[in-house]
Amino acid sequence: MKGNASEIQALYSHQIGMQGVDSHQETYEVRNRLRNWLSNFPVS
């Protein structure tokens, strides 16, 4: 479980520009901020 979580965390960290993420909660918060920021741009 822990190893699997680490792999997922590493993947997310890579996606957000290799920023270190200490916990899953922080990972989700960063992804939510990214999603909200990206939503400012119209996709057409």
Outline:
With 44 residues, the protein is mainly alpha-helical. It has helices at residues 2-15, 24-38.
What do you see in this structure?
By secondary structure, this protein is mostly helical. It contains two helices and no strands. The termini are far apart.
Note the main sheet: none
Which stretches are poorly predicted, pLDDT < 50 over at least 5 residues?
A: none
Task: Report the portion of residues in β strands.
Answer: under 5%
**Quantity of strands, as a count:** 0
Distance between the termini: 39 Å
| Topology order in helix (H) and strand (E) letters | HH
GO biological process, one term: thiamine diphosphate biosynthetic process
List its traits.
44 residues; elongated; single chain; mainly alpha; 2 helices
Topology:
Layout: H1 2-15, H2 24-38
